[in-house]
Specification:
The structure is a homodimer of 297-residue chains. With 297 residues, the first copy, chain A, is α/β, with parallel strands linked by helices. Chain A is built from 13 helices and 10 strands. The model of chain A has no long low-confidence stretch (mean pLDDT 97).
Chain lengths: 297, 297
């Protein structure tokens, strides 16, 4: 499950409520393409903006729509007692695994983060992916901490947020992790623009935002990279550079949500208030870019 | 209400539940000292870790214990629809004002933050304090944005998080804000170690963590600073330097919660999991420091 392409769909919202029909269509698109796993309610799925009831509702919909494809869902929350309840809900809804970022209001120490995962690990009967996401959590994992956490019972994967740009340094880091994490724990890459490199340099799974919208293309890119086809990987990835430039300016969620609105697969606006999709010139420019990227559609 | 000393008590928790008796005692201590306002459920009161029901429960307790002293409470939440409900709850509980930080999972733009306050301002019938807290929200307010927000109907105060160390620059910044914010909007200082200076340099109110535990001393410091008694202010503030050194190393919440545990006014541990109070040598050293600071007690 924590291998290949794990695609993260949006959770389209209208006035704070889930647009079920669009959400189901997004999942069906992933099922038809045959992604390796579906990451319902990742950061891209706006999990942090939903009530407990909505998270259960969306997870159930995802599982029932996903057929035989494993669904993983985020159980993150600032309040630990709520993380426990979300874990129960997710398992009841039939997920194959859960994602968990160390959300906090106050900054956390390494020791606090370790205890947090240790305690939730004891509550779980499905595998857990450690969700490194410093842009939203402010917590920076060290490799030593990730390696220590990998030994916890339920940990099945680690989603890295950043790898060095430099090939040698990235290879060194990934190799160090892969050698030292507990047996069977996979290393995942996120941050779409660096993910093709991450896969070529040894990561096992791409936790992918673009995969939630364009799964066929993302699968082709994943397969090229995992089979070390450098030329094909480079071509498929660099063709997306215009999109990565938008990511760089506005963040992946804002861009992919705008793309979904432009394509008409979700209602507009689709993000939780006060988050906004692109407007004005940047939106017009994204419309033009998408026309050039018609191979995605 | 948004003047003088606004004291922020802890919300002591045991296994995620509010210890009502200790919480009431903390509030009674503030009432006896005659603070200008009580900031129930600030960051120090762990608001972000509580359920909606617990926030209502704590706010009602604070209001009923506070007698004639105005109570303000935080209505912050990542989900906007929940902010609206928390505002309703707070007003129903009888608060005199609310605090609101721009909590978000995704980074917010200036425009998104403006719309956020604009929309909640329209829902409120009590004054709002804009809660600048970049250490927890990651959002950095510009002075231009604060000035624009001050014109919203319900805005009554701005809680600054950081002022320049340099006296001239700090005076310039505070003077610029005071001259340009809407009439009647007060400027507050937070960050205990810089607050005496902030008050001497023109701020109207101290949003105080130490004030929630040691209100008599904090009132004396507030009065000295507001009356521009530089010598007395310097003496009262520099006597606290050993405590500010702990703040600097561990953050104000961890330190003041450890102080409360050491004094026996709350059960131990009193913070929401996974946050920890000080242990080992640092705790022993804080015990010694408190003995030297016996004038606080």
């Amino acid at each position: 499950m924590f291998k290949g392409l794990c695609a993260f769909p949006l959770t389209p919202l209208t006035e704070g409520e889930i647009e079920e029909k669009s959400f189901i269509s997004l999942i069906e698109n992933l099922v038809a393409a045959g992604v390796d796993a579906i990451g319902a309610l990742g950061s891209t799925g706006s999990y942090a903006y939903l009530t407990r009831e909505q998270r259960y509702q969306a997870t159930k919909l995802a599982v029932s729509t996903a057929a035989n494809i494993p669904v993983i869902t985020s159980i993150g929350h600032v309040r630990f007692e709520e993380v426990v309840r979300l874990a129960e809900d997710a398992q009841k809804a039939g997920v194959s695994g859960v994602l968990l970022a160390p959300l906090s209001y106050q900054p956390l120490s390494t020791d606090e983060v370790f205890r947090f995962y240790e305690r939730i690990s004891a509550e779980l009967s499905v595998p857990l992916c450690i969700y490194d996401n410093p842009a939203t959590t402010k917590f920076e994992f060290t490799d030593e901490l990730l390696i220590a956490l990998s030994a916890l019972n339920q940990v099945g994967s680690i989603k890295l947020s950043e790898i060095p740009d430099n090939r040698e340094l990235a290879l060194q880091r990934i190799d160090n992790l892969k050698t030292r994490v507990a047996k069977g724990v996979t290393i995942g890459i996120s941050g779409d623009a660096q993910s093709a490199n991450g896969l070529m340099w040894g990561c096992d799974v791409w936790y992918s935002v673009i995969g939630g919208m364009f799964p066929h293309y993302s699968l082709a890119l994943t397969q090229a990279a995992l089979s070390q086809d450098e030329r094909k990987t480079h071509k498929l990835n660099s063709d997306l550079n215009p999109l990565w430039a938008f990511y760089h300016r506005h963040g992946s969620l804002c861009v992919i949500a705008t793309v979904a609105e432009i394509m008409g697969v979700v209602a507009s606006p689709c993000l939780p208030f006060p988050l906004q999709t692109l407007t004005g010139e940047e939106r017009a420019s994204l419309v033009q870019t998408l026309k050039q990227l018609d191979f995605l559609l």
